[in-house]
Structure formats: structure tokens, C-alpha cells
Amino acid sequence: MYQKVCLIANKASGQNSRDAEAIDRAMRVFGDGAWRVDWDPSTDIGATVEGALKDDPEIVIAAGGDGTVMAVAGALLGKCTPMGVLPLGTFNYFSRGLGLSEEPEEAARQLLSGTPHPIRIGTVNGQAFLNNASLGIYPAILRERETVYSRWGRFRLAAHWSVIKTFLKFRKPMKVTITTNGDARTQRSALIFVARSAYQLNSFHIEGEEAIDKDKFAVLISRAETRWELFAMTFRLAFLGPLRGKDYELLTTESCEIDVHRKKRTLLAFDGEKRRERGPFKFRMSDDNLTILLPEGHADA
């Protein structure tokens, strides 16, 4: 059982009563040797983590959704201190993939008895990500989702509505050049989704788990080119499972480069976060390991 526990939380969590209560409940389980560090997303997460490590915690807990967890993970990449996750987000794909409970007390108990395990994670242009990174319609959905959330709150129904609104605004697919293993191909696609979460893929009945198990990316290239094809693909995604070859192509690779043929910056999404960047977008598996805490009975990440 770990005694010195440092919990890093998004500063905004203190303003959200649900998240604040969840953190308080977990901290009571962690005990008197635990302390909390608040991170302001407008500041450097690396500096926050380095400051926390000066107090020699046995483990660092990232409290938040996938975006917060991704930020802390990137700062802990190559460090010896294990990272645990206290899930507070809407989807929590990474923590679910690790077998962590969404109940704060139970998750805290799992982490206190957890086993350190090294993993490699994905990077795009040096930015770490745990679940996925994408170009095209999905980053646009995330942008629309923020607008919907600000008006209606963070509900799953609101997330689904943001998908519909984005599809209705869709005009034409991207023209991209994808290079893997020295071979380049140019094509059009509405979405390129680079996955590192077997749990997320399995949740939507999408192939690619084998690539993740081999420490590689599952690169999904949408074949939909019109809004109606996107709606049809989404319907199958929700109720039947998308069809490889009809809805998407699957590439398995440890690295790839994607160049979007446009003059403007392209919206890139990674673990729910997003920003505009100029290509090419270089996807690589991390050279350094991230040490994570696996709950008892969970053999792999």
C-alpha cells in the first residue's frame, strides 16, 4: 500500500461540485499522507509535475477526464514515478481500459494496491496522447461539442447532438497524403483516426485491437465522402458495428506521416483536446515508457 500520494487535478475541478466531491472522497481513502496539487491548464503541466515530484511521492494520481490524464501522462513520460488515474470525465476511455472503477473510493483503493507497469504511448508532432488523435470531422465534432456543452451542460445526449450538427455542416472530405514505411498514398477522407486504445475500439466494435497489442497504431481511414455516407457510417457505428472495407480502411503501423493538402492550419484532436497546426503530422510511438498503475487482477494495459 502506498503512503505518499500526490493527486494532480485540473484547477477547474474545485469549481465543479461533483468533481470536488469525488476528489474529496478519494483523498479520504488515500489517507493523511496524500496531498493535492491544482494545475491551471493555461500554465505548463511539466512545471507542475516537476514541482510535485520534488516532494518525492510514491505515486502520482491524475484526477480528471482523458484530457487532464493525457497532460499529466505526457509530463511523466520517462519518469520512474508511477501514474494512477482517478476518472472524472464523461467517457474515461483510458481508465476504463485499465479496469479502474468510476466510483472514487473504489478507484482509490485499486490504485493504492496497484502494480506499476511500463507502457509506450502515442505522440503526434511531439504531443503525447493515450487514446487517439485525429484529423477531419472528429475534431470538428469536438469543437461543436464545446458549444453545445456550454449551452446545455455536459450530457451524453448533448455529445450526440453535436455529431448531428457537425455532419449537417460538412462540405467535402480532406485531400491527404499518408506515408507509412516509406510508401506514400494520396486520397480523400472525411476522417483519419489514429487509435491507441483497444478498449475504445472494442466499445464501438471496430477492428484494430491486435495492432494495439503489438505496440502499434490502428490507423482508421474513413471511406465516407458525403454527409449522408457519414450518417450511414455513424448509424452502423451505433447499432451494428462499422464494416471494414466499406466504412473504413485499417492500417497497422508504428509510425506514419499525414499531410493535409490545404493552406490553412488543420484542426488536430488528441484525447479530447484540440488545436490548429500546420502539417505534416508525424505520428510516433514514444521512445520512453510511461509507468502506470494497474489494479490487481489486470494483467495488461
Automatic annotation (TrEMBL):
> Under which main EC class is this enzyme filed?
transferase
* UniProt xrefs under InterPro entries: ATP-NAD_kinase_N, Diacylglycerol_kinase_cat_dom, NAD/diacylglycerol_kinase_sf
Q: What is its EC number?
A: 2.7.1.107
Domain named DAGKc: residues: 49-128
Q: Which GO terms describe its molecular function?
A: ATP-dependent diacylglycerol kinase activity
Is this entry keyworded DNA-binding? no
Q: Which UniProt keywords apply?
A: Kinase, Transferase
Give the source's domain of life in one word: Bacteria
Note one Pfam family from the annotation: DAGK_cat
- Give the protein name, as stated in the record: Diacylglycerol kinase
Native species of this protein?
Answer: Palleronia abyssalis
Gene that this sequence comes from: dagK
